[in-house]
Structures are given as C-alpha cells and as structure tokens.
Amino acid sequence: MKKMFIKGLVVSGVLLFLMSCKKEEPLVNVDTNQIKEQIQAKENEFAETFNAGIIKNIGYHSDDAISYPQNSMPLVGKKAIVAYLKSHMDSISKNHKISFKTDEVFVSNDAKQVVEIGYYKIVDSTAAIVNSGNYMCLFVKRDGKYYCLRDMSTSDLPND
C-alpha cells in the first residue's frame, strides 16, 4: 500500500512537472484596425479588377479555397472559382460596378486567421442598386499575406 502511494505521488509529481514545462505561445500584438485595412484593400483590389472586366491572379483566393456562391454548388479550388467568375463576368459586371465594405474582422490570437464580415453592393450605370447583400470570408495568412480560404454571400434583396 505504501509503495502504491509513493508510486502515485511520484507519477503525479512528474505529470505536474511536465505540465508546468508546457511552452507558452508568444503573445502576438494584434492590431485589428490594421488587419481590417489590409482586408479592405484586398476587397478593393478584387472589385477594381472585376469591374475592369479582368480576371487575373491578384492573390485573393488561396489555391485550396472553397467558395459558396448563391444558388450554386460549392466551388472547390482557385481554378473552379476563376472559371465561375469568368462565366459570370458578363451577367455581373456588364454596365455594373461591385463594391465591398469590410464591416468587422475577427482575428485569431496569432493573427494567422481572420474572419471578415462585410457588405457588397452592385450598382448599374445610373448608380441604382441591382443587387446587394452580406458576405463572410475566412482569410489565412501564408507567406506573410492573407488569402481567402472560404467565402460565402447572400443577397438582401427580396426574391421576385
């Protein structure tokens, strides 16, 4: 009985020692406003490129991104997303302009992931709103830059 008690005490002591040796993650000074500005700049570049009728690699989506467009199956991979955007270019951007506004960002403690909640608006040549709604994007930081890993949107206009 005495040996079991001593054995238990030794094992408990070793476990406590190992738990106390857990390496603490260094604290990252996260500037949420700066990250929000970075994400908004990415959205602005995406809108400017799309509004110009150009689909090119601007470093927005990651290669393994998945997009969940409205009324469609998920688009898996950057190639599928680019193909979708190209096939919808005329119906979305012809005489229309899209804009994005980053409303909120939720940044992980290590600043390697950011969830963005925003608002989009598509206007015609008279500035009348033809579509608008909300979106969410999950950005991941790779090689020092943020890339969209997941995105989805929903229209706030009534169905006709």
Task: Give the SSE layout.
Layout (H helix, E strand, L loop, with lengths): L1 H19 L11 H20 L9 E8 L6 E2 L1 H10 L1 H5 L3 E11 L5 E11 L5 E14 L2 E11 L5
Parallel strand pairs: 1-6
Antiparallel strand pairs: 1-2, 3-4, 4-5, 5-6
Describe the structure.
- This protein has helices spanning 2-20, 32-51, 78-87, 89-93, and strands at 61-68, 75-76, 97-107, 113-123, 129-142, 145-155.
- The protein is an alpha+beta fold.
- It is globular, with a radius of gyration of 23 Å.
Brief rundown of the structure:
This protein has 160 residues and is α+β, with helices and mostly antiparallel strands. It is built from 4 helices and 6 strands.
State the order of secondary-structure elements, H for helix, E for strand.
HHEEHHEEEE
Largest sheet: 6 strands, mixed
Question: Termini distance?
Answer: 79 Å
Percent range for helical residues? 25-40%
What is the molecular shape?
A: globular
- Please count the helical segments: 4
User: Which residues form runs of ≥5 with pLDDT under 50?
Assistant: none
**What would you call the structural class?**
alpha+beta
Strand content: 35-45%
Total beta strands = 6
**Largest sheet, spatial ordering of strands:** 2-1-6-5-4-3
Average pLDDT over all residues: 85
